[in-house]
Fold these 2 entries.
Entry 1:
Amino acid sequence: MPRKTASNARSAPRPAAAARGVAPSSGETVELPGKGHQTRQAILDCALQMAGRIGLEGLSIGVLADRMDMSKSGVFAHFGSREELQISVIRRYHSLFEADVFYPALDQPRGLPRLHMLFDRWVQQVSREVETGCIYISGAVEFDDRPGPVRDALVLMVQTWHDALLRAVSQAVEVGHLQTNTPAQLLMFELHGLILALHHDSRLLRVHGCVELARHGYRRLIGQYATPTGMKLLQTLCGAGD
Amino acid sequence: MPRKTASNARSAPRPAAAARGVAPSSGETVELPGKGHQTRQAILDCALQMAGRIGLEGLSIGVLADRMDMSKSGVFAHFGSREELQISVIRRYHSLFEADVFYPALDQPRGLPRLHMLFDRWVQQVSREVETGCIYISGAVEFDDRPGPVRDALVLMVQTWHDALLRAVSQAVEVGHLQTNTPAQLLMFELHGLILALHHDSRLLRVHGCVELARHGYRRLIGQYATPTGMKLLQTLCGAGD
DNA sequence: TCAGAAATAGTACGACCGTTCGATTTTTGA
DNA sequence: TCAAAAATCGAACGGTCGTACTATTTCTGA
């Protein structure tokens, strides 16, 4: 394979319009790179949906091409390798996750209100059964024992999200909604556990009302660490009941 | 494919020694079905290890045959189909799980002592990083969207284990270690979440000390529902320090 | 011991996989 | 408008997969 290497190195980063145009002259909705970018996004959306059902490892360029009414090589050219496709799917999920879960919560004031919205939207994201499953969770299981760039990309995204959540917890302590001796890392661990159990029970066991279980767990958890100020807020945020 | 169907129906349930000899004349360690059973078990152990790393979907009969120094068809004949192999692996994991986690805890008295040992051994089982990963957890993610006999088998095993754990919680209430108003289902959900978070953080993020996080979470969780009697027991079981 | 049964090997098939490469169509910008 | 560039196609390759079928070896029990 003498010339294959050179050719491969060329085709991988080059294909289609890879650059992210961030500042087009006319407006943000007009894509800078032209039509290639559009189809690439469409392919990614389709791939994301597939990956949510059968996993990143189950992604097949051939099946993807069929669903897109394109040729295999046409789809392939946008990514240059299956690995790049998988990474791109992860990145796409990340940006959708940010848009649906993270950014909206920034409008809430720091402390429990923001933390509450982060968790609430996280729950919604994970419990949407009809739609795309959570790539973070399925990817974690698929790639925890598979070193390589895909795993690296996944770890980066998950870590970023966890860091953001941990920051929200710390802020809740700073503004006096949670007690100063709150073990932030443990709290994060437990919140994450609630989400994972929700994912498991809703998708595998099809348990009825597991969304409520996750929410109750959250209330109990936060209630244990909340200051009096935080408790009042918590009751307002969660509505009536226990 | 006229005669293929008949031949297929024959080869699937027949191959090797399928029957489970439960009462051999000489002793329990002497296998009834002969040599076929031995190699079948050896294949399953190898497959279990592979599945723990790359998942049940990643299992390949060819690779399995290589590792066993056998021919593909030789391995294949023991199961009749890939699906049967996957199901057999799940069953094997289940019986190992029972032996390592469930049965030892039955020696403990009902209530918190037994529940504690169940959770403790569950933690150990999941956090063994070098060894086989947890098939329940990886299988759940792989098959939650894939109907079929493999999924059915998996759900059955997981459900059985959850039921057993729920029984242990109920008993802890009955013997007065946990308060009578303990929400058993929620407690189960939270315990399960701790395990899932442990699995995630130890394997994907490689977080140091996440076993301790899971144990702390457990202590906090049980502590919240424990009666005074239960609290004393809990402190004894967990050792010193909060 | 020796025939019948069980276990294993060998080979082949068709399907799908990711990837390459040259040809062709479509889009783009001066 | 028209040539250059980008996007897409079509065909083919080597590889792996699960499975079927036949032949051979190994075990087992009367």
Entry 2:
Amino acid sequence: MSTRPGYTPIACTNCGIYQLCHSVGGDADLSVLDTLVKNRKTIKRRGFLYRTGEPFKAFYAIRGGSVKTSTIADDGRVQVTGFHGAGKVLGLDAIVTGQYNCEATALETAGVCEVPFSRFEELSKKIPDLQYKMMQIMSREILDNRELIMLLGKMSAEERLAAYLLNISRCPEHGSPRLEFSMSMSRGDIGNYLGMAEETICRIFSRFQEEGLITAQRRQVTLNDLDRLRAMARRK
Amino acid sequence: MSTRPGYTPIACTNCGIYQLCHSVGGDADLSVLDTLVKNRKTIKRRGFLYRTGEPFKAFYAIRGGSVKTSTIADDGRVQVTGFHGAGKVLGLDAIVTGQYNCEATALETAGVCEVPFSRFEELSKKIPDLQYKMMQIMSREILDNRELIMLLGKMSAEERLAAYLLNISRCPEHGSPRLEFSMSMSRGDIGNYLGMAEETICRIFSRFQEEGLITAQRRQVTLNDLDRLRAMARRK
DNA sequence: CGTTCACTTGAAAGTGTTCAATTACTGTGG
DNA sequence: CCACAGTAATTGAACACTTTCAAGTGAACG
């Protein structure tokens, strides 16, 4: 999307708060914007950025590491709603209700910057582009969720996993998909996310390997046949 | 949510553009805001508000009638992503991409007001509260989508239908659920939305009737046992 | 060096789908 | 106002896919 000419974006900033800040007009006071992204935190594996029910004070932009978000139903069932890496902004769903409606857990040590919502509101009054960017980010989130809905509602187990693998292969956004990478989430997490049993994930991983589509050694994955994976992600 | 004291909201306006406009500060020029909601249209059954791929020019606030939104995968498969009534704002997912990513179809004659995005942007520069409200609306949409994700990812067929019936029973928002109502969507639409076959919907409708939970005559539905339905929507 | 957690695999059991046939509406035109 | 046509809804039976339960393997970590 529109990065102003003459401005060099920071690495891995495609869709995050950095983009949020850095894509606003060159006339904006960037040193002011920087105050938005200064409040940094590090969350260790299994640590929470925020938990369900906590009052909404800030949203979070991921600088590095990886984070999963999950919602908990009244009866205790958990649904993983996403895996997130550098650049992603989390916590936006809390704006309406004033409290976080899901929880965000670090899958591996994650660096985030905490953006107090009050600070954001303050600044966005001065810089209209900022709110516009935020709307874009939220609009993107709606789109992403819809993709998951399609996955869960209409696709078979194989299709889901194929689509999933293709998705995470292009995680750092921009650029071509990585063919080899290490996943930070467990089979159980993947299964939960894709709406199927952990065992089913395992079986399909095995099947994909037998068919030469991928090579998987625990969480280390290599995609051997992108084309066939892509075809598979479309129809059974 | 916060309706200013002393201001009488229009009927059925809980979460729409009316709320958007009318909940901004009393200091705002309401006659200006009114220009946002003047551009009215009527869409007949099976007619489209917008279709996938069309350029994003405006979003739509439903004034009356009912509308379904659906996405289409590359291979042609369709996923119904929601049923919407008075007050709902549609088209927000198009902000990032600049074109509509789903299509909105009238299930029965629907009145909408078309809000040109350019007009909205213009006004929101003058009235910061407007963009804030919009963020709330988008945040709500993210939350709603997440509910569907939970439904599709973690719930059994019976649970889904029970949850669905409870959902649409409180469609006009605010106030207690209607126990008797007429649905504007077909069994096929419901099935598609809930990620199951039309036949499965029928069977469960029948089962619910045998068990005295509901009375259903085609699209005319009466909920006979809210408590049991609620229990059912929670766990199998 | 043992214990724990993550992953894998097999077999049996469900749950929901598909295909097919039938019935019940709705709307239209004679 | 009725007959017809087309669409929507329902139901049965066989089948397919995914889950569940159970057991076993292997890697990681203190």
